[in-house]
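# step 3/5: fold
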Amino acid sequence: MKEFFALPVEEKQKYARDPADLEGYATDPILSDEQVIDWSKRLFLNLLPLDSRKLKLWPETPRRIQIMSNGIFKSPLHRVTANARNERISVAVFYLPDTTTEIEPDERLITEERPQMYRKLKNYAAINFECFQSGKIALDTVRL
């Protein structure tokens, strides 16, 4: 991954994200005047299912768990402090179920001592993206 981000801009642009898609190399799209601007560059690639991979976007040189666990597993916010002497590369992995799949806390993890903390929902990726653009925390918006 580090090798990819060290490539010249022209080379990285070969893997550019289509404006109508999430996959590929780009910055986050700016959707509103109120959006929190994040100037980081991202390389977003689908891993699974295998037939969803867009291999033309794969370089040749290369938090839904908190809801389903009813808050037992924590999904930390990723924050980075810039360092003028050292560059930083972060690799984030997301589990994105189909947008029509409902996710909710596993009923076996809901007890009298630990009541249900999150509502049942679909398309958490869209909720997360919308919240990120407005500077909100997605988990806070789906908490009961």
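# step 4/5: annotate
The helical segments are 2-5, 9-12, 64-68, 124-134, 138-142.
# step 5/5: archive (pending)
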